[in-house]
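Protein modeling request. Please complete all fields; requests missing the sequence field cannot be processed.
Requester role: graduate student
Desired output: 3D structure, token encoding
Chains: 1
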Amino acid sequence: MAATAQAAPVCKLRAQPWLEGRLAGATRAAHAVDARRGQSIELFVAANGTLDGRRVVFSDDRKRGHTPWTACDAHVAWRRVEPRMQHVATKAPNASVPVYANAVVLGPDHGKWIGFDRLEYFETALPGDGTTRVVRDAAATVAGPPRPEGYDGLGVMRLAATVRVGGDEWQTAGADDAPEGLISPKVFRYSFRRGDDFLGWLTAYFNVPYLFGSAGKGTRNQAERYLGADCADVLVAALRHVGSRLEYTSVAELVDTLPHAEGAVRPGDLYALDYVGFTDLPRSWDHIVALVEDRGPDGKPDGKPGPEDLVADSGNADGLKVAPLAEQGEVRIAVLRAR
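Delivered output (339 residues):
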């Protein structure tokens, strides 16, 4: 008597799948993972479903004891989810300035609150159809301004996926999940940074759009959630990662709150800037940057602010960048020490 062929398992998903990940070698998975350069992040597609009528969680995360996707012959299409760095397809709240802004940019009303801006997002297909993925950098689809050596691949990135099981397709949260124009925390986020100190954590903010007047208190601040950051908030966010209790505030408040540095400047100091003769910015202090490398005219440290100093800041549609202080033009400087 011929053997009866075994019926294929019946797999069904019951709800929207999600992505979770962890540092390679770690045990705990999460919806967001922050890594240092040189580390790897393991990503998994997970979903609640049924296998032959029995409720299971599908995932290839073996440390969680889930039902592997091989039971369903599942295939996954992966996509990057990224913000555009300024308004492209939508109207900017400041007609003459396409950067994202919650407040008026330039002129006598500079800084006046006008409401939460809506950021634009797009997705880019990635190669491969596996149900797991390993990432080792946060390279963006559209290259920003050139970075100094050692800064490539750093920053924040988000991912989405489409799961195909049989004839059905299910999508994780992605670019369309942006209520009020801000990407949902359901969209998987990861970051790579240069190190664990203030300047190291600051590098995790590459690929985060400049957002003038970024808002929210504490962990609800837009910079804290890697949504968008203005010049002050991106620095405060990085400082909070290393234990600072600073609240999100303006450049002027940082000048009033933080101690002014004495003696030679050192990496990690903050330079508050006043653009000399620029009347469209009526405040006493216009911008703030972080000193990355002290450079004198001969390329060696000289212990004082100067045009050759390498500084990090977010102040336009480039987002976070590292460049010589000379690019800021003629400025008056107050040197602050946040630690």
